[in-house]
C-alpha cells in the first residue's frame, strides 16, 4: 500500500466542499417539503370549504329559503339543544341519508 498523494488539507477541503454541497441539497429538500405541506393545506382547506358550502346549501334546502348570517346562532342553539335533549342530531347523522327517517328513532320531542 502506497502513501496517499493528497495532503490532509486537501482531504479536509474536499470534505468541507462535500458538506457544503449536502447543506445546499438539504435546503432544497426542506423548501420542497415546505411547498408540499403548503399545497396539502390548500387542498384540505378547499375540501373543507366545499363541505361547509354543501352543508349550508342543505340547510337552506330544508328551510326552503336562504339562511341569514344573523340566524346562525339560532341554528347552533337548536342543534345544541337537540344534542342536550338526547343526542338527536348525532343519532340522525349516523343513519343512512334516507329522507324517510322514522320519527320514533329520534323522538318527536327532539324536533322542537
TrEMBL record:
One Pfam family in the UniProt entry: DUF3847
InterPro entries attached to this UniProt entry: DUF3847
Keyword terms: Coiled coil
Presence of the UniProt keyword Coiled coil in the record: yes
Residues in coiled coil: 5-46
Keyword Coiled coil attributed: yes
Domain of life: Bacteria
Official protein name in the record: DUF3847 domain-containing protein
Organism this protein belongs to: Coprococcus eutactus
